[in-house]
Amino acid sequence: MGSIIKEISKMFLEFFYKKKHKIIKGSSLIPNNDESLLFTNAGMNQFKEYFLGYKKSPFSRITTIQKCIRVGGKHNDFKNVGFTKRHNTFFEMLGNFSFGDYFKKEAIFYAWELLTDSKWFNLEKKKIYITVYHTDIETYNIWNKDIGIFKENILLIKDKNNIIYNSDNFWQMGETGPCGPSTEIFYDLGDHLKGNIKNNLGNRFIEIWNIVFIQFNKNLNGELISLPMKSVDTGMGLERISSILEGVDSNYKINIFQKIIKNINNFVKTKDLENNSLKVIADHIRSSVYLAAENILPSNEKRGYILRKIIRRAINHGRILGIKKYFFYKLAKKYIRDIDDREKEFLYKKYDNIIKIIKNEEKSFNEIINSGIILLNKEIKKSKNNYLSGKQIFFLYDTFGLSPDLIEDICINKKININKKEFIKYMDIQRKQSRKKHFFEKKINLYYKNKISKFNGYKIFATYSKVLDIYLNGISRNKINLGDTGEIILDITSFYGESGGQIGDIGYLEKDKENIFQVYNTKKQGNLIIHIGKMILGSLKINDYLYSKIDISYRMMISRNHSATHLLHFVLRKMFGTYVHQKGSLVTNKYLRFDFSYNNSLELKDILNIEKKINNYIFKNIKIKTYIQKKQEIKNNNIIALFNNQYDDTVRVVDIKNVSKELCCGTHISNTQEIGLFIITKFLNIAHGIKRIHAFTHNLALEYIQKQNKNIKYISNIIRTDEENLVKNILLDKKKINILKNNIKKLEEYISSQEEQTLLENNILLNNINLVISKIYNFNPKLFSYIIKKLLKKFTKIIIILSTKWENKIFFIIKISKNISDKINAIEIIQKNLDKNVCKVNGCANIAQGKINLSKDKYYFFLSKIRSFVLNKINKLI
User: Fold this and answer.
1) Residue 448 — very low, low, confident or very high, per pLDDT cuts 50/70/90?
2) Side-chain half-sphere of 410: how many Cα atoms within 13 Å?
3) What pLDDT score was predicted for residue 77?
């Protein structure tokens, strides 16, 4: 599958290799240390810290092929996928990058040569069109004068809404930071297709390549400052260039998609291979397979939500095509088996897990969707005038995941009209509530300065340091004064910056004991370590020398919890298998939290067993050491690594002797005995197939046990038994309580039946309507429902008014049989006879209830007023 794509990929890398570019493997679909992105959505993501200037690239020229996921934002619209020729959720991006090496001229000449030279892609030159930012005259001249493209084929793109730099051809990483103009390359597929290069591309003109020239830093005031290191970031969609080279006008017509579509058609047997639902499924099977390969599990949060959304949309479109049996996971099997050699090894390693994840979600959703269709059919049966409201459609969509298309398809078959406009209104409300902006956001406006903060605090807790930078409210300053809060960056520090799930250190920066900055938190930003806090004595300025002193007891608790996290990870994999994968962790000075993938349930016996095994390792006083190793050696040494993360060429290994080896940059204690004790306090299911464990160590674990022991003694004293027989006696008491509850229920039913008899004796029949009014004291209002059900069964037309004084409040309920509720209104009965300030009534025309504060005399007067009011109403019906 996809041999042409394979050839194009090979040519691209070969071309830039000849241009002295280092070929780098594409990164994981899960961005490394970047909370602003759910998924890698461009080739530049893994090089973001180089562009920002936080790190210096080891290579000045790089080329990659990057897997990307886009499910929203300005680049894509999820609902368009499958319905347009070029939208995809999963795609691959061909990219070449320069970090302080070549710039505009070379980047443009490289692109032109690869695209048009007969040795490479050999595209027709006259069919190529270019867009350029309107003030970037240098780029315009390169295309026009140096390359020789006619002026008519070069478009100058202006700013939108007269807002400077607000243009499709001016790239910005965020509100501040690196930015610069871009130039885009388009290709004309021919005049047999509709489209205009100037204002409506249609299907005729396809964007091939985007080349961004990162040459400015935008500061907090919106000013552009020239960067000392200029960079180039380019991206070309592999599927798009493949469609051109294969001579087709749609991504879905290229070889790789056509094979998937034919596989889908084995389940459908349709002659229409242009059906949009086939394209949706073809796209979504690719993204589902690659997301599952990253060990992402479908859930209702973040990345898991996106995978769930993709799988369910595909299954919905399968239903539209008439597929009612399981098919999606079978397509995943076929896709992996048919994939070309370029991806086969990667996917085959994850094969079992990928199929298990997709199959479980398909099974789960089929159960939900079947329930949704049953409910839809019920709504259709109840519908008046063969009509379903937008609110009903939205409920079915939001609760059961039924796609609007599937609902519409079913309704068309049953000749039911639906209100699409109202549905869209509800969808817009939901989008506004859930919409979040995701962009590169940093409080401190840093760019490339060749500055590094060195961390030497693994074993040294106080370091002589120099102040490199001071920031107040995100703006660089020369000095910080008494009372100011801000951020300080040092050349060398003993403070660990928050990363890898471990929180940052706290402590003090001291100069001569007369100038003290209290550090509340420490963060990492690229190669810089940022000390966040407040000047509590004196002042500090840039180039001052001081001592960075961490809070040692705070650090030790963090280190104990971090080492305990490694033991927990090891024990979980040993007990449940290597399919257990870490999904997140938090290591603080008070507790540790660990999320992991595991599809089976966790029982109490499992938790106790985990605790026992970990504490056995703790009591054995096992040595913990750390060492540096080459990255390529780790796979051969049984070392646990989070391969979603990017690592440098050398890595730090935390080795708990003969137990656990794991890549980690965090702080640890020197032997397991220092952990003291390990106690699990909570275990939760946070999503489908994702478990979470909370635990305490050391003195906090002891305090937890003592607190639990105190509670046990307290409970023992209450029920007057010893601790050994506590559970036995609680179960005996529970049995007795259940017997008493059952007896009380029978007694309440008896009392209710007695009250029902009294009501029947005082029943008033007028105009063929039964009126039943009760006034009771010390009668549980929860029993009203029992009486009402019995009375409604006895009479066709009835008005029931029940009230009682219970726990010093008067409760009432009015129930009217539906066949007369259009003539007599339950809420009106209360509102006409009681001051609104005295009582708030809940209900509708058919039923009303509430509680009031009235004296006994006023209560009886209130009931007599209601009785007269209702009788008068009934009389008027005669």
Assistant:
1) very low
2) 24
3) 59
Percentage of the residues of the chain whose pLDDT score is greater than 70: 92
DSSP β-ladder status, 776-777 and 798-806: parallel
Q: What is the distance between the alpha carbons of residues 201 and 195, in angstroms, rounded to a whole number?
A: 5
Averaged pLDDT, 416-426? 84
* Domain positions in the chain: 3-246, 290-434, 454-550, 575-710, 748-876
Mean pLDDT of 614-626: 95
DSSP summary character for residue 94: E
Residues 381-398: pLDDT tens digits?
Answer: 877 778 888 888 888 877
Q: In CATH, what number does 748-876 get?
A: 3.10.310.40
Distance CA 89, CA 182 (A): 24
**828-853: average pLDDT:** 73
Among candidates 243, 179, 192, 224, which has minimal Cα distance to 5?
Answer: 243
Q: Are 114 and 12 in contact (CB under 8 A)?
A: yes
* Long-range contacts, stretch 186-194, CB < 8 angstroms, 24+ apart: 186/128, 186/129, 186/130, 186/131, 187/123, 187/127, 187/128, 187/129, 187/244, 188/127, 188/128, 188/129, 189/244, 189/249, 193/249
Res 642 pLDDT > 70: no
CA angle 393, 395, 397 (to 5 degrees): 70
Question: What is the full DSSP assignment across 27-78?
Answer: --SS-TT-TT-SS--SGGGGGHHHHHTSS--S-SEEEEEEEEE--SSTT--G
Contact yes or no for 446/52 (Cβ under 8 A): yes
Dihedral pair phi/psi, residue 167, rounded to 5°: -145, 150
Q: 107, 130 in Cβ contact below 8 A?
A: no
Q: Is the pLDDT of residue 643 over 70?
A: no
* CA pair distance 303, 292, nearest whole angstrom: 11
| Residue written as token pair 């490694």 | 566
H helical segments located in 161-274: 238-245, 255-268
Assigned CATH for 575-710: 3.30.980.10
Tokens of 765: 């029949």
Cα 305 to the chain's mean position, in Å?
6
Strands 769-773 and 776-777, how do they pair?
A: unpaired
Nearest CA-CA partner of 473 in 481, 485, 465, 482: 485
DSSP 127: G
Pairing mode of beta strands 479-480, 650-656: unpaired
Is the pLDDT score of 658 beyond 80? yes
Spatial separation of the C-alpha atoms in residues 472 and 544, rounded to whole Å: 17
Which residue shows structure tokens 């969509």?
A: 397
Strands 592-597 and 690-697: antiparallel
Helix (H, G, I), strand (E, B) or coil at 640: strand
Residue 19 pLDDT: 96
Q: CATH says 454-550 is which class?
A: mainly beta
Q: 106 vs 111, 113, 230, 237, 387, CA distance in Å?
A: 9, 10, 13, 20, 63
What is the model's pLDDT at position 827?
Answer: 82
Four-residue CA torsion sign, 57, 26, 248, 319 = negative
Contact 456, 494 (CB under 8 A): yes
Tell me the average pLDDT of the chain. Answer: 86
Query: Is residue 752 over pLDDT 50?
Result: yes
Per-residue model confidence as pLDDT tens digits over 231-261:
999 999 999 999 999 999 999 999 999 999 9
Fold of 3-246: BirA Bifunctional Protein; domain 2 (3.30.930)
Classify each residue of 51-84 as buried b or exposed e, where b means 16 or more C-beta atoms within 10 Å of its C-beta.
bbbbbbbebbbbbbbbbbbbbeeeebebeebbeb
Q: CB 658: neighbour CB atoms within 10 A?
A: 10
pLDDT of residue 1: 53
Mind listing the pLDDT tens digit for each residue in 157-203? 999 888 888 898 998 876 777 889 999 999 999 989 888 888 788 88
